[in-house]
Structures
1.
Amino acid sequence: MTDVYLNGLGAFLPGPPVSNAEMEDYIGRVFGKTSRYRAASLRQNKIRTRHYALDPDGRALFTGAEMAAAAIKMAADQSETSLESITFLAASATLGDGLVPGLASSVHAGLGLKEIEIANFQSVCASALMAFKSAFLQLKAGEHQCAAVSGSEFSSRYFRPGNYECVEAYRIEQAIPFQADFLRFTLSDGAGAALLETRPNSRQLSLKIKWIDIRSFAHLFDLCMVGGATKEDEGWRFWSSFGDPVAAAQAGALHLFQDFDLMKRMLPIWVSHYLDLIDKERIVIARIDHVCSHYSSHGLREEIIVLLKRAGAMIDESKWFSNLYTKGNTGAASIFIMLEELYRAGGLKPGETILCHVPESGRCMNGFMLLEVV
Amino acid sequence: MSRVQSVMRGLIQVWSDFSAEIDKTPLIDKLLRGKFRLDDYRRLLVNHRQQVIEGSRWIARAGSSICGDYAEQRSLFLQHAVAEHRDYRMLEANFVSVGGELDAIAKAEKNIGTEALHAFMYQRASEPNPFDLLGAMFIIEGLGQKKAGEWGVMIKEQLSLRDEQVSFLLYHSANDEHHMREFETILGSSVLNIPGMERAIVKTARIVARLYRLQLEELESYG
């Protein structure tokens, strides 16, 4: 089967960088009060700046699809081919702009291309790797010669006060819980994209995709990062079963939250997946030159390092690259935005390898992708 | 990568699978859902006690199966057995402090999972130089150090108990780093020179993890 090359990368970060002090000017103040968990959340994730697709009054400047299309255009510009060569599009996001149809349709329309094949991937962060894998295999199988992959997120719109102030339990408390508020200070907006071809660039470096390995561990864990459901005594109740969306919103079944205790229990499973790839010699530690790991916050990184050192599976920290601290956690877009900056920095050399890692707490998933600089 | 790290890699993988799977057993799932009852805590203690009392005995048996070439390692096994052989008393005291009868726990039968676990342990401990049992220790110690403390805190909170009523679970979670270094020291001694030992340690860990889960799944199942 033919080899597949990542020949262009694009990153679209809306608006100016927003400092920690300015965040609530954009995402607002729930019940008119400064968040009591803001400082604790920022201490944990160590993010210093991020971008929002909102203006300070909370008005949307773009849609998620527009940001994805902008990133794809940048990836095409940066490659040696043109936008019109794309015949397959795989779009990923945690949440698209609407419920139906899939985001990929709107991204396609935004690109202004004639008819192409599309695929839509919705999960949390790991949906980016699902989209990558789909495009990778389409090209490998000879179905297409040029594909675009995108990841885009517009989380901030779900963090505006109105999403919480309608919840009856929060109205009584005049406050929202940490598991919801932490995400408001962790996730932000942006899009990233990659352009894939069955031939390498001729005048600039390409990243050859060696393999992509994604595993779901949903058989072992309950829902962890959730939007659209709430936990009742009998189990999960989804927003669609409340009779009307207003009732769902009032019951707290329409906003995002994350169970941190459950996520911590996922760490060993993610590490175990990595160790298994070492056993199978897909990952050879001595041959990894760069690591792009989409850990969602700095606190998780430290815990993973302890386990890796014990198993002799640690890749030297000097090889780790992340722009989480300046570009924010943009969910499915993060891995593209990281790769784009690493590539643009100009330090990559032919023969080097890049290990990409995207864990997802949603219902426990984990993915790796190995790239070789050619 | 050293041989010790290679064994640790295998053990961490077994542990990772085990730690997620054990959370799915009905009793622990109930605890994690915040629905634990005092009855459940008493059941956990009763079904745990037979394994705790046997633990130091199979370690002592394993020690006596170690030949003179490994005298250093034998000392460590025996010391470990001595350090733990009275732990069951703390567990019994916890049981009595939450309304259990001492006689009921002391005379409780082993459930069928516990029977299977111990038949395996004693069989292995009776083999010459049974260092594969280091894999068993990794799982059981890991459970004490990583899970027991978490469970202890949750049980204490859900049932509004005092520290001394969950002391058995809480006390095992201390000293994690120290135990782990001690374990790596034994692995780093000459035991890995025994042919096939690296693989045997990881395999025994996997068997023990499966049987331990069986013990938690088969509460009050006596045949």
Note: Chain B has a mean pLDDT of 91.
2.
Amino acid sequence: MADVTLRGVARRFGGRTALDGVDLDISDGEFFCVLGPPSSGKSTLLRTIVGLEPPDEGTVSIGGRDVTDLAPAARDIAIVFQNLALYPDKTVYDNLAFPLRQRKDRPGRDEERRRVEQAARTLGIEKLLSRRPAQLSGGERQRVAIGRALVRTPRVFLFDEPLSALDALLRIRMRAELKHLQRELGRTLVYVTNDQVEAMSMADRVCVLESGRVLQVAPPRVVYDRPASTYVSRIVGTPPMNLLPIEIRVVDGELRLQAPGFSLAGPPGPALEGVVNAQGQRLVLGARPEDISIVPPARSLPTARVVAVEPLGGEVVVDVEFDGRIVKAIEPPGTAVAPDDLVGLQIDLSRVHVFVEDGEALYHAAGRSDLTLVEDVGVGSPR
Amino acid sequence: MSALAKRRAGVILRLGAVAATLVVFLFPVYWLVTMAFKPQQEWAPTEGQIFWLPHDWTFGNFRRIFGGSATGDSGLSFLISTPIDALTPILNSLVASVGGTALALVIGTSTAYGISRFGAGGKVLPFQILQLRMFPPIAIIIPVLFLWTYLKLFDTLPGLVIIYAAITFPFVVWLMRSFFDEVPREIREAAIVDGCSELGAFRKAVLPLVRGGLATTALFVFILNWSDFLIALVLTSQRVHTAPVFLSQIQSAATGQEYGSQAALGLILIIPPVLLSILIQRHLVRGLTFGAVKR
């Protein structure tokens, strides 16, 4: 078993907090992505797990064993660095064989050759074994770095933004290959990235990290459908989720969400209880671009003005101005709108979210139709 | 003037400048080489005749500095004052220079690695080390003489080795530090995760990448030590004279300065640095770290 457990891990550099009490449970054999913006503590997290960066507080366990004070070599972990850190003076073969040669139970020559060649075959670099890193392309170097991690079959693999320097096409290919490789090896893999597409496409579970704090740990679909906070909602999904300020009131035993230009109603039952309890706080309504449809203007619908149309081939992103802010909607290709058109906005109410402004989530419709659009009775105006 | 003529004039001017520079720099070499093979009669102009090249080529000067006679074994020479032998001073020089260089490289390289990789000594230490070089050697050599006498290091090879290492140590630290700074820190970390000890990571992963820098530094420091005159003059007496000190003392009562013998020894002293440069030439190439990391 090679599950990785972090308990209260904290790390400060001078006055800067890199990790702020991180608790994580990474399961054996899991593809675990840590997603966060630059300097959110992602790399420090990896370096703490591998043992290059001792935590100020907290413990790291691998396979149920506390390894906090163990040297990296004793943890049976491999890491692929962001800059790969191949040994430039050594051939690909020697790069791959290097980890084997440092072990106490160093394998014999034949066994070494067998294992290096096997790792090379897995990655399709068996023809490059006599070259040096400088003679390889970016993708080939990438594979050598992965191969060096692979060759000693560690219990846990750590990847620190390994694809960030590759060109877009190669990245897409490596993404699929990595996912496949991890399945095949069945080993725990912790993958750090600031690219939400990488996280969403590869991970079994995603951990969203910001300023050294874990905001959410969940499968990609859940992070997307039920983001734990406005921050998570905007870090996952392109274009990011639209957020509109709302006010809430309870009118005639019914919950009213008053947005600029329209209002929603719902039963103040258990589903919306969190929202009801948040009366008096500044709240926002969240709707993903694909959950907003551009329709001909109608009296019953909020009206907006088209600002920009971005055809992307498979879809069209339409920017509309609504109540002084830009709302993005994803439309099917061929949508016939032009800047300055007045359009109606149809929001899929079974897919909306309610958050505390710059804060945690209070409600995810998640397919339920608790909320309905009501004719604006014009009572009070939203801020 | 046409463009072609202008260009031609430019080329001629440039070649002229190059030639003039070459004359300035190569004249001493020319002088040294020719003088080493001139018999005593040709060292200075006789009756207005200048010997641009030796008229009677001879190895006499070389025989003379290795204990023989300048005019051959059979011939009686009024030149010979006392027989001299440069072999011991040359060996002394070799041992002191090589030993001092090796010692400075070992200590300096470790220090540089500590500073570059682990920030050893903070911001202050590197400058404190550089500070050691602020004093001109002549300013401190007399106190060192007393210290060396007290420590029984005066006129000994270990004494020379230690002082040479101490004097060149700051150079090694500053040069090697800049080479280590160019090695990505992940190289060391990768080696450690791959199972190396701290020392193993240094030796097997990092050091190979600064080979070129190490070779350059070694050559530089060796030349400094090899050409030292002042320190050896003060800190040694007859027993472990080095070649440069010995060279300065080749003179005879009859002729004063023995130009020919001095030139012969000078010529020999050029050989080690030249040989060393040729030996490590292929390491003097930069760019060994290319391909280590994505840029």
Note: Chain A touches chain B at residues 50-52, 71-73, 77-79, 81-90, 98-99, 102-103, 132-136, 138, 141, 148, 152, 165 (CB under 8 Å).
3.
Amino acid sequence: MSSLITRRALVAGATIGTGALLTGCDKIAANPEARKILFMGEDMNRGLQRALTNRNALVPEFSPAQMSPIFRSNGTRDPGTPGYTAMVANNFADYRLKVGGLVDRPLSVTLPQLRQMPSRTQITRHDCVEGWSAIGKWRGPKLGALLSAAGLQSTARYIVFTCADLYRGTPYYESIDLIDAFHPQTILAWALNDRVLDVAHGAPVRLRVERQLGYKHAKYVMAIDAVASLAGIGKGKGGYWEDNVDYDWYAGI
Amino acid sequence: MNDPTVTPHTVMAVKRHTLATRVWHWVTVVTMFIMIGSGIGILKAHPRLYWGRYGANFDTAWTTLDQWPGWVVTLLNLLTIPASYNLAISRRWHLLFALVLSFALLGFMIVSLINRHFQRDLRVRAAELSPREVAHDVKEHLAFRFHDPKRPGAYNILQKLSYVATIFVLIPVMILTGLAMSPNMDAAWPWLLEIFGGRQSARSIHFIAATGLVLFIIAHLALVILAGAWNEVRSMITGRWAVPEDVA
């Protein structure tokens, strides 16, 4: 029966085709030109989201009853460098948050000063790029207030965070644009769940940039710099994971 | 379905699928393949599923990858894009082709309303849903008779229901639960979270609907082969479908 041969050929063809497609996908991802197309999805998604949705929309906030019983920590759980360990031992008395770059008045802020600033308290959901979520209560001043105090210059386009934890020997870094930097829920958190932020969750200060995935929420923030371009930061893609393992810089999805 | 023509071999042929249907079908074939493969890659980053708003390692998962049978895990490993674990590249594939899937479906829906493909071929009539009719169609399927001799080009009720479920339920649920996992979309459209009961529920439903799609694909491929693979595949490429001899 000729149709049987056709069926067999079809199944065999489909199997070979599947294998070829899978290998093909990996070849495409390895080819620099094809990779450019593959990586266009990030700009397309960011462009669509920014164009079609309200740029000032707030993420949902939750009630205390809706919080995760345990807020797991992730990434670096203790920077462990001599400098950081000394700061912990000293209860961050020597900690200074440096705000610089394209600002009129560079700042050097102590932890008590940061805690005295008007703060925002928000119970929000933290979404890791891996897929899990945890809901916790964060408290800290708005990043926008700090940037305004420093006097952001008109050429500034991005805000870069440099951290105390080391990855491959260099400090972790991340960056966001001004839309997220001045978003009302973007805060520099110094408390989690009504307690002073612990080392595992980024003491003394971590960024909360609620409309993006967890790796954007820099922990152990030491310096905040306003820049005109990300070209001079790391390898130019705006963050440690972006530079080293091709994570999207725009992590709103 | 209209315009029967007679070929020299007196095989009845009909124009079965419009260009729009054929283009959408094959775009979706490639896209589904990429979405399933890259989706498995993303799942492997945290292979635990939860119900509710939050869910992480200390919370109770309703299912985890290590509870699944070995052959399922082997199959998942075979289909993963990229082949070796790389969450960043899986996400790149997934989030680019999510746009292809969504806009292709949107375009297909608009065109199929205009050219009346939906109204003509997929509309389910109340009479077709009577238990007697459905039982009859199940029996016909089990006897490998897939076409009504009186209207060989028309879809039978099981076919209609599976296509309607896929086009109007499964793929839209995939898209909406996918959007519900985006923290920025949750800010912009908080109703996404409300309809699915939280981000982790949306993530669970995303994988359940994906499983539904995989089952559809398996049944679809099996029936294409049983109904006459060459004729069926050709009809989706050229549009021309020969009416099988047993019903012609």
Note: Confidence is low (pLDDT under 50) at residues 1-8 of chain B.
